[in-house]
Design brief:
Elements lengths: L11 H12 L1 H13 L4 H22 L2 E4 L3 E5 L4 E5 L3 E11 L2 E12 L4 E8 L15 E3 L1 H26 L15 H7 L8 H16 L4 H13 L2
Helix pairs in contact: 1-3, 2-3, 6-7
């Protein structure tokens, strides 16, 4: 997953924002036609153009609210700013207290805990199934229904676990430290001191192999072969 995407279905608020973004094109078209025909004064046209531009930007940003994931990390996109956290810097994804300017909003929100101890509060919040009248600001927040909220939290945690597994596979197992009291040897020393199951070093095995070949060709007698073999095995 190289591109950023929302790993969950859109809620009702986001769907309405998308529809609102599409509906802005209708009055914008009407204003352009009226201005071209001269039916709308220039100051009025400029005022409505600025008003529609601001509404378009706000609606587009509202439609893009949420949490996005990719192979590289997780991204929280709110109304005013976007925060991207690499998976290696994510310590935990959990449900925390939703706040606005330090004030408790009275409902939970999905929070990204970074490894450096900082918290990233996402705009995803657990709303009420039947929302009563409150003074809580909803602009810039996605207060979805409880089942959808729990589903999103579970999905984001699953992506975090998958990223941790990929990182563990790419880095490989940690190197094992040498056992205590066990001296380390160089490659040259290991070649000389390495012994096999029969107690012979690699150098002794080479000497025995060469001596055996000479005995098979008749270069040494049986007595010489036995004496030389005993001498090789006695060498430490």
């Amino acid at each position: 997953m190289r591109r950023w995407e929302r790993p969950y279905s859109l809620d009702i608020a986001t769907a309405f924002a998308v529809l609102g973004l599409a509906a802005v094109a209708v009055p914008a078209t009407v204003l352009v036609i009226m201005y071209v025909r001269g039916e709308l004064p220039a100051p009025v046209a400029i005022f409505f153009a600025v008003w529609l531009a601001g509404g378009t930007v706000g609606t587009a940003r509202q439609a893009m609210l949420g949490v996005y994931v990719s192979d590289g990390g997780i991204r929280s996109r709110s109304l005013l700013h976007t925060t991207t956290v690499p998976w290696a810097s994510v310590a935990e994804i959990h449900s925390g207290t939703a706040t606005v300017a330090g004030l408790d909003m009275g409902r939970p929100a999905i929070v990204i805990e970074r490894t450096d101890g900082t918290r990233v509060q996402t705009p995803l919040q657990r709303g009420d199934l039947f929302r009563p009248f409150t003074f809580r600001p909803e602009l810039g927040r996605l207060a979805t229904w409880p089942e959808h909220y729990d589903e999103i939290l579970t999905t984001l945690r699953a992506h975090h676990r998958d990223a941790q597994r990929r990182q563990a596979v790419s880095t490989g197992p940690p190197a094992q430290p040498p056992a205590a009291g066990r001296p380390t040897t160089s490659f040259a020393e290991a070649g000389r001191a390495h012994t096999t199951r029969d107690g012979l070093t690699a150098e002794q095995r080479r000497d025995i192999h060469a001596l055996t070949r000479q005995h098979e060709r008749g270069a040494v007698s049986d007595a010489e072969f036995a004496a030389e073999m005993a001498r090789i095995r006695e060498v430490d």
